[in-house]
Amino acid sequence: MPSKLAALNRWVDDVAKRTRPDHVHWCDGSQAEYDQLVDAMLKTGDLIELNQQTHPRCYLHRSDPQDVARVEQLTVICSKNKDDAGPNNIWMDPAEAHAKIDALFEGCMAGRTLYVIPYCMGPLGSPLSRCGVEITDSPYVVANMRIMTRMGTAAQERIEREGTFIKALHSIGELDPERRWIMHFPEELTIKSFGSGYGGNALLGKKCHALRIGSYQARIEGWLAEHMLIVGIENPRHEIRYVAAAFPSACGKTNLSMLIPPEGYQRDGWKVWTVGDDICWMRPGKDGRLYAINPEAGYFGVAPGTSKKTNPNALAMLQHDTIFTNVAVTADNQPWWEGLDDRKPVKDWQGRDYDPANGPAAHPNSRFTVRANQCPSWSPEAESDQGVPIDAIVFGGRRGSVVPLVFEARDWTHGVLIGASMASETTAAATDVGVPIRRDPMAMKPFCGYNYGDYFAHWLSFDQPGAKLPKVYQVNWFRKSSDGKFLWPGFGDNMRVLEWMLKRVAGDAGAIETPIGNLPSADDLNLDGLHLSDGALDELFRVDSAEWRAEEAAVGEYLASYGSHIPDALLAEHQRVVAALDAETDVSAMPRRAAAS
Ligand code: GTP
Ligand code: SPV
Ligand code: MN
Q1: H-helix or E-strand containing 244?
Q2: Residue 355 Cα, ligand 2 centroid: separation in angstroms?
Q3: What's this model's pTM, rounded to 2 decimal places?
Q4: pLDDT, tens only, 248-291
Q5: Whether the CB of 138 sits within 6 Å of ligand 2
Q6: C-alpha 367 – ligand 2 centre gap (Å)
Q7: Cα of 492 from ligand 1 centre, angstroms
Q8: How far is CA 435 from the centre of its chain?
């Protein structure tokens, strides 16, 4: 049903004129509409039915083998001035970009249906939420958007009330990697994506809107759009404190957001509440605290590694009403991936008979799409219009060496430096990144829609009189021993690290000051019931001054690459850390944590 908003109708008409679909369908977001789409996709083979006894209403989608992850080399920011996109982005002149991609859209929907998807990122009534309309020719995208966002009539009504929306145009085209672009026009609040049907390339409410365009809007409007999970930790006194954590893609956000605390914690009454697993929008409230919403309504999570042991909450939510993408299947047609259990798959992610010689059975970036409230730890606060107050912000990457399990920033400015200094090993979530490890400030390298230098300045600007800002931490679940094994068990045991942070917030725990930040002291981490290998604890907390001087030198070079956009306060903070490290003449003088007895 066309809209009451003339600007929306006009845009849909213009797109239809260019793309020439056989039909135009305005999505209402109903269950009946979803069911019809699923039926149609089962007929075309876009979806494959999984075992309906074990997994009711679960389906499998197999992507084109050349279309299985985000494509950062083809993702561009088209601001008027190149400098506004910054060296962190690939820039294209807006006029040139429009011309290039509009040529691809010409007639591309012939023989297809054009779907109009009005969507709202965030609770429908929240002042923090923002709306958009995605036009797509992919029913798979429509089905995923229905799970991932508040989509349909209610969102359209909000758009008609507000009169504005993000224009998000998508076509799968021919799924030809040579004819593929993911383009963002922040100043025009417009996204154009062609030639991919995959996740972050195609579900335009997610990374394209909620992060790239979102971060641009957030800077202008005084809030933050971040690649962060949001989790509530309830202590035995039933107080819930909320933590937001930024890890790069495939580095543990979904897992941390729904962790199950170790047994001892459960006995004592600790509980975990999942508000969000990937994206966080926050803004200062009247009381000076930062309030956060999860703009999404579902999880598009990494399948491999998800098991009863690592993430029982995820496994429970994936038993019904889930779309799986690029996983393998067992003989009785159940979804399967590496790390799930010891059953043997019979078909791999491409539908071939499983042969280990072809590599993993499930694609390393295979995913599930599921409604957020199917998670047993789902927090009703995810529907709260004002959001949840954040007490701690956590930055973390995959670092096999150098970075200790956890440390705390001295203050906000130091916290911003820690975020800006992040680096991480690259993962299967994006193709062709080309380096084994890269700088990934705030886990936003692929997602910040403007110049990182300006972005760091925006972060610093929250430190104002009256602000009650969260404490900031760095974590590293991925430090390895000399024989290449993870030193820390991770997953549920990460609760031990979160507890220390929240005790620090409450003023109940100690720490040792070092040049890089504050580390937990010997008695501050609860290690009850944990069995670490000999020397693991020492290694997990080892801060080697030579390694850290090299690290900070690399950070200095990186910051310098942003030239005059880098705020002086950040450079001064970096200088302070470098000087403190230089003053440590004796490596052995660096505080080290003694192994717990
Ligand atoms: P995106 O959805 O791409 O943004 O990823 P994410 O940050 O949500 O990562 P996710 O939680 O899906 O984890 C990615 C991979 O890391 C999975 O294979 C997990 O099993 C693994 N992982 C998550 N947490 C831990 C941890 O604490 N320790 C170890 N060793 N691996 C982990
Ligand atoms: C990520 O890559 O960070 C994801 C998956 O969360 S995608 O939707 O492809 O961005
Ligand atoms: Mn992500």
Answers
A1: strand 240-246
A2: 28
A3: 0.97
A4: 999 999 999 999 999 999 999 999 999 999 999 999 999 999 99
A5: no
A6: 9
A7: 12
A8: 20
Residue 596 confidence (pLDDT) above 70: no
Give the whole-angstrom CA distance, residue 83 versus residue 213.
Answer: 16
> Rounded to an integer, what distance in angstroms lies between the CA atom of residue 306 and that of residue 111?
39
Domains by residue range for the chain, with CATH: 6-47+69-221 (3.40.449.10), 226-240+281-288+393-582 (3.90.228.20)
**Residue position matching structure tokens 């601001």:** 79
Residue nearest to atom 4 of ligand 2 (CA): 249
What are the tens digits of pLDDT across the range 37-91?
999 999 999 999 999 999 999 999 999 999 999 999 999 999 999 999 999 999 9
Cα angle 174, 46, 432 (rounded to 5 degrees) comes to 50
Ligand 1-lining residues (CB < 6 angstroms): 247, 249-255, 277-278, 301-302, 304-305, 310, 429, 477-478, 486, 490-491, 494
d(CA 563, CA 540): 35
By most ligand atoms within 8 Å of CB, the mutation choice from 249, 277, 299 for ligand 2 is 249
pLDDT in tens, 471-510: 999 999 999 999 999 999 999 999 999 999 999 999 999 9
Structure tokens at 378: 């789902």
205 lines ligand 2 (CB under 6 A): no
